[in-house]
Amino acid sequence: MSYPFQIKSIEQYHAAYKKSVADPEGFWGEVAGSFYWRKRWDKVLDWNFKDPDIKWFSGGKLNITENCLDRHLGTLGNKPAIIWESNDPDEHHRVLTYRDLYQKVVQFANVLKNNGVKKGDRVCIYMGMVPELAIAVLATARIGAVHSVIFGGFSAQSIADRLQDAQSEFIVTCDGAYRGNKDIPLKSVIDDALVQCRFVKKVVVLTRTRIPVSMIKGRDLWWEDEIKKVETMGNPDCPAEEMNAEDPLFILYTSGSTGKPKGVVHTCGGYMVYTTYSFVNVFQYNPGDIHFCTADIGWITGHSYIVYGPLCAGATSVLFEGVPTWPDAGRFWDIVDKYKVNVLYTAPTAIRSLMSYGLGPVHSHDLSSLKVLGSVGEPINEEAWHWYDENIGKGKCPIVDTWWQTETGGILISNLAGVTPSKASYATWPLPGIQPVLVDESGNELEGNGVSGNLCIKFPWPSIIRTTYNDHERCRTNYFATYPGMYFTGDGCLRDESGYYRITGRVDDVLNVSGHRIGTAEVENAINMHAGVIESAVVGYPHDIKGQGIYVYVIYGNTHGDENLTRQDIAQTVSRIIGPIARPDKIQFVSGLPKTRSGKIMRRILRKIAEGEIDNIGDTSALLDPSVVEEIKKGRL
Ligand code: WTA
């Protein structure tokens, strides 16, 4: 397979960028022409950011799975689509060729149909990183249903909230999942969630860990039994549902600055075009390369760069069930060596964690197959960037620092491996089609180089968020109202003297802990549910490995003398309500919080204290009671 839209030189990059701005419709129409459409679009783009109302490839008809699978069968049928590596290095790996994957997707699509799933229905998928997770995702898309994948680190309560918000009547899960030395009882978490969600009709359960699970008659079904039923029906086909380009493909929940996660909605046509375009160009994927993205499919990175982008491009994608440090810190390098991985795409938090184990685990493996390294999810600090460059890439692999978001669907700012220049800790330049602007607090555009401001994008690209599920107004106010006429990212950004972009982190109340987005308001809500907690405030602080850690200030009724136990109890409540990923790192008990006369918590002060900048708190004269600041400083953990 060749990619007519692949940019191969810096001159081609500049030309493509120029054309994408001068004639966006011509530009994207040409890119979209190399996909398989049942019916070509009538209009490339219709949009306004006011409502917002954004339509790409209107009138076009397609099914993304025909682009991921059917289209490749003739040429790539026997080529590996997915290589699955188990959590356990001794368990045999699995290779699914494009033909195998096609057959399994078709089978499972029929399972979904047999169980009453119809076009437009929302299917919740809560599984570990097994090939069946990708199969369930694709099978859902094949029949025109909408998947909502929930990361395995979320709690029953978080699942229930998402099931209710999306009104998902169908769930696909596993009995359990392996992650390092842990067995996670996924089905049992689902059972807890379902106590509140009586509307759920069917739960399909894949066998993975074979821990005991309760199976409720009429509702719960084993994946394996359902596949057998389909096999005996004898019709192995499942024609793909014809979708409009703007029909929803999936919902993915993500945290914002308010209490409740939002269901980001992506649609079929534009998402397909942009994820594939960015996959090929950023990583400079060439046919035959082995691509290893270490993210979980429960996050956008896994959706776009393990499943859809690579498969549309006919690539070979490695799917890894485990964690980087188990059974030892050489696990990634072991996989690179074993499958001769060419592109490794991971997160700064993983790199920093592996750095702390020294070079022993690196040197015992052959990493010479690597051609391109990638980073995603949070700013990569220079030290980690250089370590990655020198020790993993041996100074010969370009590092792509890819900036993007759940809402953007695909990578927006990044160098293109080996084609455009890289710069340590900079995402560098926008991809063709992406028009970033920096604005000051009042929304004035900051022109020229050597400026910092809030990062906005002023023109739509094909995989931009279309709506937040069931609440379009929320989408408008969150992303399109702060700076009228622009999409606001929530990130701060520097454009340096030479015009390179560097993302400096969130400017709203969203934390980035180990590359996971967590809203401070969500964590506060969970903490405030704990008996005894009167009030709380959550801020981030710099953490050597996680990037940011979660620092909590709590006003507590009575700790009964054992503060440590109370801390553990509070952390346990957060794990219960949100999930272990939001567990606080530090909990400080305070007698009051710094508030203005109108009762607003001054988070800036709390942030400074958590960051250790206690001599640089700034002006506290607006506070109702400035003396609490002294007390909080003294009690800092
Ligand atoms: C941050 C993950 C700096 C950023 C794909 C963004 C980054 C949030 C980078 C989105 C990067 C992501 N450099 N920061 N290369 N990539 N971020 O939705 O703050 O989980 O807004 O999407 O992660 O996180 P999300």
Strands, helices and their partners?
Elements: H1 10-22, H2 24-32, E1 43-48, E2 53-58, E3 61-62, H3 64-76, E4 80-85, E5 94-97, H4 98-114, E6 122-126, H5 131-142, E7 146-149, H6 156-166, E8 170-174, E9 177-179, E10 182-184, H7 186-194, E11 202-206, E12 220-222, H8 223-233, E13 243-244, E14 248-254, E15 262-267, H9 268-283, E16 290-293, H10 300-312, E17 316-320, H11 331-339, E18 343-346, H12 348-355, H13 360-363, E19 372-376, H14 382-392, E20 399-402, E21 436-439, E22 451-457, E23 467-468, H15 472-480, E24 487-495, E25 501-506, E26 510-513, E27 516-519, H16 520-528, E28 533-543, E29 547-556, H17 563-577, E30 586-589, H18 603-611, H19 627-634
Parallel strand pairs: 4-17, 6-7, 6-8, 7-14, 8-11, 11-12, 16-17, 16-18, 18-19, 19-20, 29-30
Antiparallel strand pairs: 1-2, 3-13, 4-5, 9-10, 14-15, 15-23, 21-22, 22-24, 24-25, 26-27, 28-29
Helix pairs in contact: 1-2, 3-4, 3-10, 4-5, 4-8, 6-7, 9-10, 12-14
Bound molecules: 5'-O-[(S)-ethoxy(hydroxy)phosphoryl]adenosine.
